[in-house]
Amino acid sequence: MTAATQASLHELPAWVDVTAMAVAALFSAHTAQQRRIPIVAVLFLGLVGGLVGGMLRDMLLGLEPSAISTWYYVPVVVAAAIIGGLTVRRLRLTPLPFVAVQAVAVALLITIGVQKALAYHTPGPSAILVGVIAATAGSAAEDVLTQTRPAISGEGPWMLGVVVVGATVFWFVSIYVAFYLAVIVTVLLVAIVRVSSVHFGWTTPYLPGRAT
User: pTM of the full predicted structure?
Assistant: First the structure.
């Protein structure tokens, strides 16, 4: 049995997947609320932010999306969007804990995306791409729908770069070391780098020769 086959025998349980989607929905609804749009749109954008990444992940793998085939995905994500839209604004979270929780959810979406791709015998580079899409598509769709420049393409604190590195690290450690160690390493890496980039003001670098 090859290392890749051994890795594919492990998958995070469905409750981890739906929890990561719910946290993504909560933060998406919270972000939408800050943009001063109607409450129905806030809840819809929370739903989009929570579900789109996972649904695209499954569709790219030729699967029926879990959010459609499993009854509790949509209710849980809707509930999270309601919480994010109605109550998160009242919570006294400083920016760094807020970013840290969001980063953990992103990291879990990465690991689920990459590992699900491996479980269906997807080549390594393609599995990494699936993980990146699963982790970023929801927030990008929310930004597009609100006519905002997607955060993953902005100059601000590291996001897309962290996701790509996290997906690559998870794939490597999962294949060549151990699955659950890969989950832990990826969550810590994404959370630490994302929080550090916000705290220290690190910005995404450009290629040399960029016009000023």
Answer: 0.86
